[in-house]
Specification:
binds uracil, single chain, alpha/beta, 6 strands, Uracil-DNA Glycosylase, subunit E, about 190 residues
């Protein structure tokens, strides 16, 4: 009988991130791969204290094979630096690993969380929050509140693309400032937790 388990469930316990990435590259568990150039697995420090989870790769990420390399990534990188977080020391990933979002593919995220074991997880937007928390999330209600979960302390903030889509310069500036404040709170929690 054909193997029905998701390929993420077939990764041997203790496998390194590089093996997960290799296996995810061939993932055909849903038809998203057909429309994408490649799988965009997470990237960054293997034992990062802070993991940031986005929604799905955009077109530039699809071509580069790396998360957050496009315009939203630039907003995020500036906000990380302004919040005192070194972009080279975080782990960046997405709820879904292929370009063209439909809500599947989260088993890979579960493996990344279990392997990196960050102290703090920052969910960028509602889709990431839903994937990490396993329930619908309203950013306005959850932002600023550390949520204790079995995977680490979770913070919920806006997606950088939402900041880019804001209608005018003043709202974009407010969005950036809020993102920096949320990331600074996450950085503090990552630095102070036992
Ligand atoms: N938006 C996301 O959610 N993830 C990326 O990697 C890029 C843009």
């Amino acid at each position: 009988m054909a193997e029905r388990r998701h390929p993420a469930e077939r990764v041997p316990p203790g496998a390194p991130l590089a093996e997960m990435r290799d296996r995810a590259a061939d993932c055909r568990a849903c038809d998203l791969w057909e429309h994408a150039t490649q799988t965009v697995f997470g990237a960054g420090a293997a034992h990062a204290l802070v993991m940031l989870v986005g929604e799905q790769p955009g077109d530039q990420e699809d071509l580069a094979g790396k998360p957050f390399v496009g315009p939203a990534g630039r907003v995020l990188e500036e906000a990380l630096v302004a919040a005192g977080l070194d972009p080279a020391r975080v782990y960046l990933t997405n709820a879904v690993k292929h370009f063209k979002w439909i809500p599947r593919g989260r088993p890979w995220l579960g493996l990344e969380l279990a392997k990196v074991r960050p102290r703090v997880i920052v969910c960028l937007g509602t889709t990431a929050a839903r994937a990490v928390l396993g329930r619908p999330a309203v950013i306005g209600k959850l932002r600023g509140q550390p949520l204790a979960t079995e995977n680490g302390t979770v913070f919920v903030t806006s997606h950088p693309s939402a900041i880019l889509r804001a209608p005018d310069a003043a709202s974009r500036e407010r969005g950036r400032a809020q993102l920096v404040a949320d990331l600074a709170q996450a950085a503090k929690a990552a630095a102070t937790k036992a």
